[in-house]
Structure to design on (1126 residues):
């Protein structure tokens, strides 16, 4: 604005006053200084004051009020600008800022330094390529094909879409990576872990059961299994016809095998012997019959039991009328030839047939057998407990857990059977059975929740207990009712004690024998050392040493000092009190509570020179330090791998390798990528693991 | 009928070759191996004694210079090559395994003040008293060809030190000012000065490659960032890991310059040079008291002291890039090669040897606080005069401490504060 005004003024002057004829285009630039020869504008040397301009601005209508106001303010203010800071101060500020920046930059190493300090072992040079076998992709990356053979191989490799260069994952792997998030993978892994645990548990159980030598037990087991299978099959027919078909095929296969073999024929050694015995022995006859029955059962041709299932398969292939199957599906329950068939109506039948009564009886027998097993086991266990009372609790618990699981399984079976039989069903027992079923899933633990439950359990046990009223077996019967208590035992220690107290009732012979032996020995020793009294000598010696260790009372009383003296005068009480000095008692002797040991507490100089007198720096108490010394690291006491781990040096350098300083870009970046890389590794591990599982 | 048979896997008892030792099946039952602590203690004592017996650190001496060694530098890419500069301006290139001089160059008139190797290992720079910076090729010229530098820069003042950037073509020199040079130019691209003092030494940080530090003649250490136009900060008292009148070394944290992290005391005379081990866990210092000492970076006292009868004032010291050796150059014209771990066996070790050494080391570490073990492990032979000086110094320190105690006792409580060794040494931090 000022300039414009200025230009205007000077221009006007030039035009009007000096050279009216001068043309405008002669000067391209308006300036006060330019007209050196002929133009001498008025007021060129003068300064233009703000007030001069302000007057014209006030008059012009174009200027905004705001600018006018600002100009007026400017005119009124008298302050000058501040001086800039001197050089020293500016530099100081600059240095301060730069230093802060550098400090922040340097601080980004903190994590890496900490990590390296805490690292159990540092291997230099850092960032070294692993010397182990490399992946094909890494090797191939820096290699070019040359010979035609190589080219061909390369083409083949590319054909299979195997990634050669940077993306190390195959498309399939990438897809799998995308498909599964970390969370999902975790969940899946947890599931698999659980499944594996369960599997191992069942395997262990199977092994245990397999070890049982009793044939009777296995027979019962097999029978139960078969029955169970049949039931399952029936259900399968309804729910999963394809699965049922497969089962059917399996059955067919077993039938074929049976037909081929002579296993259940009467030609075996055992069968022959039984045949001889059969005349006189009822059980042998029974066994023979059973075997034959088995053969018949197995060689019986399977008939598809349910109509709709049959339809569903047949209809797809060819349309055959329903009645074709009818004669086959009709089942005579009494006909022993047809017994191998799938009698799916059986469980549903509410009325009790003759056969069923029989089976129920059989089941009762089985129950008894099982109960007997249990009792025997309990007895043996109780015996063991008596014999070895110092056995560690954990082991016991483990054993008991196993047994109790076994028991629960049996009880479960039993309860199911009683339900089937429907003769002896009791409400309480049923509920108990249901509870058992729930318990089986969660590792077969039964918890007694109320007194009623306890009573129910007692009731269950009682009838068996009454059958054989001898003393040890009642104890065992009590023991059979124990499992719920035992579950509690894990929490309550007192239960353990009471239980043990009960178990003591049984006679224990071996310990008695032990005592006798000991008595003998003692008497022999007494005879041998009849002459010299070693024990009293020892006791005397010990008491002498104890007395020597005790601080003596120092008597500093001077008789006759400050009072009457003479023969027969005792120093007064105050004096004795004041001048008899008692030192503080020493710490209790180490052998204080060991009657037959003397531990010398003298500090031996020869040993002291090897002992640590002060607690060394990083340790906080003596116990810590002692424990650090106590653990041996040598191969005499530890296995090779442990020794290797324990004697690992902190810094390892490679012979003849130059150790370069860290490169910041690599390390700071790699530090951040490390986290993600770890995640990736984890996932890829999971993937491979899955594949293994799937295969 | 079941027949039970003892079955053994031959892998458990048959050795692989006839030269192998017999396999001994072991039973680790602790009751069979009693007295583990006393037995291990005995082993530890023996290991300590053997360590001292085998402590023979001196490897070789390289002689050939005709004046005191003023500086040594390692080759950036080769472990076997070093260069040394002497006080008569001669520069020698050495081959360490063969212990011979490969090449001799009369580089400067007067002292060779500093040498540094380029990061790629193709050339090296020297500065001398004749105000020049010279760049030399690592390759020796052919037969009959004169030794000539690739490049010579004539400066305005004497240069006292030089160091090269870790990854770029720039280097830094010090003298009157600290100058940063581009290899392609004949004038410095930047120069720093703070006050009028001259600088004696300058070093790049090998990791934070843009940071550098210099020692000035007024006992101060100045920090720089090459990206900034001004120096960062100055610590006035003593220098980072450098000498003081009380002959200690100081380790500072760049971020907290007001108090040293550690004060390393053991030398009885001025410290002239320092070099860190490439692992960064230890450093070696050369002293005017004719010894070199190795300090752990976070310990106040040295773990090792090296000296020989003929070694005079040690001017310069370097730690080899594979962390195995230490090189020292001294006044009496010799370069000496020492083992960094005095009792370490050189060369390849068999697996059993390695396991045994690791076990012994661990044992010594485990029982290090036991007086007998400590006594043997700490024992070093020192020349008589150094021992005497050490005693003198200890007496002086004790007297000072006693006096301080007395002053504290007789003045108002709290007016004479109890200072730690670290706090005693800082004078001022200049921003």
């Amino acid at each position: 604005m000022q300039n414009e005004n200025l230009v205007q003024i000077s221009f006007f002057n030039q035009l009007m006053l000096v050279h009216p004829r001068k043309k405008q285009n002669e000067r391209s630039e308006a300036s006060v200084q330019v007209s050196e020869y002929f133009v001498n504008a008025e007021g060129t040397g003068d300064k233009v004051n703000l007030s001069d301009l302000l007057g014209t601005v006030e008059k012009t209508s174009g200027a905004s009020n705001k600018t006018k106001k600002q100009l007026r303010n400017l005119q009124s203010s008298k302050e000058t600008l501040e001086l800039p800071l001197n050089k020293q101060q500016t530099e100081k500020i600059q240095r301060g800022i730069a230093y802060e920046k550098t400090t922040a930059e340097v601080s980004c190493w903190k994590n890496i330094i900490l990590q390296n300090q805490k690292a159990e072992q540092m291997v230099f040079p850092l960032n070294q390529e692993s010397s182990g076998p490399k992946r094909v992709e890494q090797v191939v990356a820096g290699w070019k094909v040359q010979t035609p053979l190589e080219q061909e191989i390369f083409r083949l490799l590319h054909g299979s879409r195997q990634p050669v260069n940077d993306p190390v994952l195959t498309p399939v792997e990438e897809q799998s990576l995308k498909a599964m998030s970390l969370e999902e993978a975790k969940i899946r892994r947890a599931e698999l872990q659980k499944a594996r645990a369960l599997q191992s548990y069942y395997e262990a159980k199977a092994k245990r059961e397999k070890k049982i030598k009793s044939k009777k037990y296995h027979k019962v087991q097999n029978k139960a299994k078969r029955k169970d299978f049949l039931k399952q099959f029936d259900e399968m027919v309804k729910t999963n016809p394809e699965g049922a078909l497969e089962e059917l095929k399996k059955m067919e296969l077993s039938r074929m095998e049976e037909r081929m073999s002579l296993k259940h024929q009467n030609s075996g050694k055992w069968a022959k012997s039984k045949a001889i015995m059969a005349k006189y022995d009822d059980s042998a006859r029974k066994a023979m019959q059973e075997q034959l029955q088995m053969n018949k059962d197995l060689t019986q041709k399977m008939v598809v039991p349910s109509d709709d299932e049959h339809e569903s398969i047949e209809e797809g292939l060819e349309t055959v009328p329903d009645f074709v199957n009818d004669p086959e599906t009709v089942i005579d329950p009494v006909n022993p030839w047809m017994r191998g068939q799938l009698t799916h109506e059986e469980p549903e039948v509410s009325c009790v047939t003759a056969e069923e009564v029989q089976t129920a009886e059989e089941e009762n027998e089985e129950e008894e057998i099982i109960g007997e097993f249990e009792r025997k086991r309990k007895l043996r266990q109780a015996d063991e407990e008596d014999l070895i009372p110092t056995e560690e609790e954990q082991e016991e618990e483990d054993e008991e857990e196993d047994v109790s699981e076994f028991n629960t399984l049996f009880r479960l079976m039993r309860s199911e059977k009683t339900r089937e039989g429907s003769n002896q069903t009791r409400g309480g027992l049923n509920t108990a059975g249901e509870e058992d079923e729930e318990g089986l899933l969660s590792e077969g633990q039964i918890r007694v929740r109320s007194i009623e439950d306890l009573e129910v359990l007692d009731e269950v046990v009682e009838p068996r207990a009454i059958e054989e009223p001898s003393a040890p077996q009642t104890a065992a019967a009590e023991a059979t009712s124990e499992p719920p208590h035992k579950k509690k035992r894990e929490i309550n220690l007192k239960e353990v004690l009471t239980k043990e107290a009960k178990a003591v009732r049984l006679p224990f012979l071996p310990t008695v024998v032990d005592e006798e032996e000991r008595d003998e020995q003692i008497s022999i020793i007494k005879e041998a050392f009849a002459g010299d009294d070693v024990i009293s000598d020892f006791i005397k010696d010990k008491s002498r040493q104890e007395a020597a260790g005790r601080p003596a009372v120092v008597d500093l009383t001077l008789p006759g000092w400050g009072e009457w003296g003479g023969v027969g005068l005792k120093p007064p009480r105050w004096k004795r009190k004041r001048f008899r000095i008692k030192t503080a008692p020493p710490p209790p002797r180490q052998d204080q509570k060991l009657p037959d040991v003397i531990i010398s507490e003298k500090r031996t100089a020869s040993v002291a020179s090897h002992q640590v007198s002060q607690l060394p720096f990083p340790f906080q108490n003596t116990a810590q330090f002692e424990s650090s010394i106590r653990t041996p690291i040598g191969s005499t006491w530890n296995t090779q791998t442990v020794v290797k781990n324990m004697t690992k040096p902190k810094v390892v350098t490679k012979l003849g390798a130059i150790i370069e300083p860290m490169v910041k870009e690599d390390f700071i970046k790699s530090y951040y990528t490390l986290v993600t890389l770890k995640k990736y590794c984890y996932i890829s591990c999971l993937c491979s693991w899955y594949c293994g599982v799937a295969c | 009928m079941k027949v039970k048979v003892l079955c053994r896997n031959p892998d458990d008892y048959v050795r692989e070759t006839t030269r192998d030792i017999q396999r001994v099946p072991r039973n680790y039952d602790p009751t069979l191996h009693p007295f583990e602590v006393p037995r291990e203690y005995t082993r530890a004592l023996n290991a300590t004694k053997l360590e001292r017996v085998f402590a023979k650190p001196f490897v070789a001496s390289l002689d050939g210079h005709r004046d005191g060694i003023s500086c040594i530098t390692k080759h950036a890419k080769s472990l076997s090559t070093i260069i040394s500069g002497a006080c008569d301006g001669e520069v020698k290139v050495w081959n360490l395994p063969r212990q011979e001089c490969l090449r001799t160059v009369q580089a400067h008139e007067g002292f060779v003040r500093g040498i540094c190797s380029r990061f790629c290992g193709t050339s090296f720079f020297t500065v001398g008293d004749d105000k020049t910076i010279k760049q030399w090729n690592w390759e020796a010229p052919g037969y009959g060809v004169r030794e000539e530098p690739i490049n010579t820069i004539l400066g305005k003042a004497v240069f006292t030190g030089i160091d090269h950037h870790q990854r770029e073509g720039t280097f830094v020199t010090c003298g009157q000012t600290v100058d940063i040079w581009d290899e392609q130019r004949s004038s410095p691209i930047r120069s720093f000065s703070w006050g009028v003092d001259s600088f004696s030494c300058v070093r790049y940080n090998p990791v934070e490659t843009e940071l550098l530090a210099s020692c000035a003649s007024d006992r101060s250490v100045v920090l720089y960032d090459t990206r900034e136009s001004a120096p960062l900060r100055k610590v006035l008292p003593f220098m980072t890991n450098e000498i003081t009148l009380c002959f200690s070394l100081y380790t500072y944290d760049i971020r907290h310059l007001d108090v040293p992290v550690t004060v390393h005391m053991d030398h009885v005379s001025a410290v002239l040079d320092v070099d860190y081990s490439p692992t960064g866990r230890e450093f070696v210092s050369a002293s005017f008291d004719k010894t070199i000492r190795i300090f752990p970076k976070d310990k106040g006292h040295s773990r090792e002291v090296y000296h020989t009868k003929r070694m005079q004032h040690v001017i310069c010291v370097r730690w080899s890039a594979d962390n195995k050796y230490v090189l020292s150059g001294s006044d009496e014209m010799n370069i000496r090669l020492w083992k960094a771990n005095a009792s370490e066996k050189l060369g390849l070790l068999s697996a059993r040897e390695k396991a045994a050494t690791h076990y012994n080391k661990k044992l010594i570490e485990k029982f290090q606080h036991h007086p007998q073990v400590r006594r043997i492990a700490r024992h070093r032979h020192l020349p008589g005069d150094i021992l005497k000086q050490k005693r003198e110094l200890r007496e002086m320190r004790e007297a000072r401490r006693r006096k301080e105690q007395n002053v504290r006792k007789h003045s108002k409580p709290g007016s004479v504060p109890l200072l730690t060794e670290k706090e005693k040494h800082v004078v001022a931090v200049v921003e």
Notes: Residues 239-244 of chain B have pLDDT under 50 and may be disordered. Chain B touches chain A through 50 residues (CB under 8 Å).
